[in-house]
Amino acid sequence: MPDKGLGVYASLLRTPHIARSVAFGVLGEFPYPFLGMGLLIGIRDGYGSYTLAGTVSAVMAVVSAVAGPTIGRLIDIYGQKRAGVPIAIFWITSISAMSAALHFHAPAWVVVGCAVMLGINCPCNSMMRARWRYALADQPWRLGSMLSLTSILEEMMWMVGNPLATVLATSVALLAPMAAAVLFVLIGVCSFVMDVAIQPKPRGSRRGLAGRPAERADDAAPGAAATAASDAPVPAAAAPAGAAAPVAAKEPLLSRALVSLFAVNICYGAFQSTTSIAIVSLADELGQPGRAGTVIACFSAASMISALAYGARIWASPLWIRFYVGLGALALGCSALLLVHTLPAAAIVMFVAGLA
Q1: Which CATH architecture does the domain made up of 7-208+253-354 adopt?
Q2: Rounded distance, CA 133 to CA 55, Å?
Q3: Which of 26, 83, 162, 353 is most buried, by CB atoms within 10 Å?
Q4: What's this model's pTM, rounded to 2 decimal places?
Q5: With the C-alpha atoms ordered 142, 232, 60, 280, is the resulting torsion angle positive or negative?
Q6: Smallest Cα–Cα separation from 192: which of 31, 10, 308?
């Protein structure tokens, strides 16, 4: 009998290796708020240009979206550990290069070039979701709740990370968030990719896939595409004893679903960048720059509450309906930012939009 209500989450964390893996994975995502707020405030104060800050955010988002499928395919082929370690090293190098560019006030084109490098990073969020598909392949009814639990913890990460990054940049040192990002890559990302207990098995090269039976039914799911399966049921193995295992099918890199997700992520990345810049700009105009992170964190707090409620029940409505309803509510909610002139009002708007 499946657990119900909030007991679902406690039960999931008691599953072997899940708690440790999700803890390392969420720590591995902490560089994102530190880099986002750190770059925004650092470029604003160092160059006095929101245009450059917005350009850097946009470049990082586009490069991340373009490189994401290729990174995901490499992780599928070579495994999370073998592919993740070099990507983590490159990420640290990119953060260091950007920090040096900001410290020495390099030309704008150098900063944008470093943003291109920063767009290539270690996707702990996608790798976590691939692990849940692998670890819960025999319990498909628990996957939706596990994905919701992951989202809850990620929103907590954003809720803590954005204000902390703002405080570090405004009260400690301008580049302190960048140093914190490197620290979390070393602790979180490296610990995550080195923990192999429930990592999906590497699929090998595409050439080697032909005629090779899949060792588990869920091995055929690409790691980077696991995010798209937030509610999709995981098919349980149904072959009779002694029957041949299904052959892993070759999957086109640019499927229609992936192109659709690419477009959605581009727009969502633009939404995150523009709202962050708008809140930081409003806080700066009101003479309260240190509170920008707290206002942005209101969105994450509401998202965490929404994810907690979402994962505690089984939904009967189609996923696509829930998706578009939530997307529409998010767009309408954030549009109200055009009407606010104080930080408390902006915080309320962000909270309401986050519930979507």
Answers
A1: Up-down Bundle (1.20)
A2: 36
A3: 162
A4: 0.74
A5: negative
A6: 31
